Amino acid sequence: MTERLITHLRHVDLAVPDHAKQLDFYTNTWGLKAEHTDSGLTFLAAEGSPEQYIVRLRQSADKRVDLVSFGTATAADVDTLAGRLAADGVQLIGEPDTLQTPGGGYGFRFFDNEGRTVEISSDVAVRQHRTIEEGESIPVRLSHVVLNSADPEGTVAFYGKHLGFALSDTLMHPRMGNMMWFLRTNAWHHSMAVARGPHPSLHHASFELRGIDEYMRGTGRLLRQGVEKIWGPGRHRAGNNTFSYFLDPHGNTVEYTTELEVLDEDSWHPHVYDFSDPEVSDQWGTANAMNEFVAQRSFNDPDKGLFVAPPV
């Protein structure tokens, strides 16, 4: 396996037609904090995270995922990854350079096998953050991002070969075969997952809350505010994390979660879970059934940003 130089997930950047409506949702409803704002561009931080921002919102005619960003430990690791990717024929959007985003740093962007923009960076300044208090139902950090793929086997292979992601577990269905692959880049069960879908798009972005009580309070708060719930609350088997999935104003699925499993990587062996078993989807049995409605919403709209680098 490729030497692992990626240390963690940093942020997910979304472009949407109605920036103001999206910003209102992520700050006043979801619980993020707008730290840096320009016309039609906002960087949103989690109060408990040292990352400068975990979500970026950009005004655009097209709804798209602008990019997914991962961190490395050093600038030398950034250069190593850029060199390896280029040597393997992966299309770089630019050579490693100083980043012009909050916190600065050093990094580069490239297109993955299906045309998503991925950013790799190091030396980004740490944001002043705080300990989330008991009862505070706001995100502590960005937990993971799940991507829909029309070629999931190829996408999983790409991230394993080029970026050193390791497979934690797989979900399968007796009629449909393998459907979701959970990939890790540190001891967390997954920082990214790849789902079989009709087109490349965002499946969901997941946000970690302080604990079970805060997770349930957050779920209840969104329900009271009339935010459309897709699936949950429940607890998955793979990753052992809780889940409550909601739709943001532009139809992206976002998740509140907590207690994602931390693995002993030296002894871990991947499982294949059959998600036609209700306990695989939800150990508690409290969530609504995983059905066509839930699946359709998770497919999202086809991403309009493939092989087109975001302007910022």
Automatic annotation (TrEMBL):
Domain VOC residue range list: 8-123, 141-259
Pfam families hit by this protein: Glyoxalase (PF00903)
InterPro entries: Glyas_Bleomycin-R_OHBP_Dase (IPR029068), Glyas_Fos-R_dOase_dom (IPR004360), GlyoxalaseI/FosfomycinResist (IPR050383), VOC_core (IPR037523)
Domain of life where this protein originates: Bacteria
CDD domains tied to this protein: BphC5-RrK37_N_like (cd08362)
PROSITE patterns in the record: VOC
Name this polypeptide is given: Oxidoreductase
Provenance organism: Modestobacter caceresii
